[in-house]
Structure to design on (266 residues):
């Protein structure tokens, strides 16, 4: 054979290029399959591990709950014990000490001056309702009743002023004049007069001169508190300017009638 024929035959017997190229993908597919199988195996292992972890947590969970329940059940005992101790303590404090209700009656504590029966009546010079000025000298030779009231147009003061106004003619028949005195301004006295149709003169002592001189202004107490004010008082002055009678801490009911009886005999 010639050399040319040998070369052709060797070329024909050689492996075609396609067979070489086809082998490589097969190897790649094997590697990919091995990788996928490995990944699936890893996933299965991780799932198993997770399942085991869940089993462990579920097994340990009841133990925690029981410990918590024990702690929770033990705490109420301490709370109930403290409550019982607290409930027992006030019983020991309350024994032997009782609170007394405050008195509702207003009582004088200390007065600015002391006036006694038989003393000379202190002089005064004050404005009355309507603007006129009134003095003790205006009533010389006559008997005079002066009733001091805490405040105009209050329930007790209204009843007292109405009672003296109602008996004003009876007092005049016994030659006795009547004056009402408080620390209210003239406008309050005039509205008090008009509202209740009072017929007795009402004097205004805003500077407290007459109130202190007659001993009706001072400290008072009510509900445990002290304050300055007028103590309801009535004074009967005879025709000679002397104090014939003094009523302190007056109770309104029947008071005007009692003063009228004393004025008739003075």
């Amino acid at each position: 054979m010639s050399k040319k024929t040998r070369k052709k035959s060797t070329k024909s017997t050689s492996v075609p290029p396609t067979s070489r190229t086809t082998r490589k993908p097969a190897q790649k597919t094997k590697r990919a399959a091995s990788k996928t199988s490995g990944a699936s195996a890893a996933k299965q292992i991780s799932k198993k591990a997770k399942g085991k972890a869940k089993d462990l947590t579920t097994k340990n969970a009841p133990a925690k709950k029981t410990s918590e329940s024990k702690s929770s059940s033990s705490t109420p005992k301490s709370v109930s014990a403290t409550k019982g101790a607290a409930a027992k303590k006030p019983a020991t404090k309350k024994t032997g000490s009782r609170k007394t209700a405050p008195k509702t009656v207003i009582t004088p504590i200390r007065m600015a001056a002391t006036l006694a029966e038989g003393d000379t009546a202190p002089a005064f010079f004050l404005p009355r309702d309507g603007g006129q000025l009134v003095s003790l000298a205006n009533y010389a030779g006559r008997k005079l009743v002066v009733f001091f009231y805490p405040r105009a147009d209050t329930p007790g003061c209204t009843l007292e002023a109405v009672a003296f106004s109602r008996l004003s003619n009876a007092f005049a028949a016994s030659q006795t004049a009547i004056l009402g005195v408080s620390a209210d301004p003239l406008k309050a006295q005039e509205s008090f007069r008009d509202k209740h149709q009072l017929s007795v003169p009402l004097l205004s002592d805003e500077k407290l001169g007459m109130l202190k001189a007659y001993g009706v202004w001072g400290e008072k107490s009510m509900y445990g508190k002290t304050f300055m004010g007028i103590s309801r008082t009535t004074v009967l002055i005879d025709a000679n300017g002397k104090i014939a009678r003094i009523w302190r801490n007056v109770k309104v009911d029947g008071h005007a009638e009692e003063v009228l009886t004393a004025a008739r005999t003075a």
Summary: The radius of gyration is 57 Å. DSSP finds seven helices and ten strands in the chain.
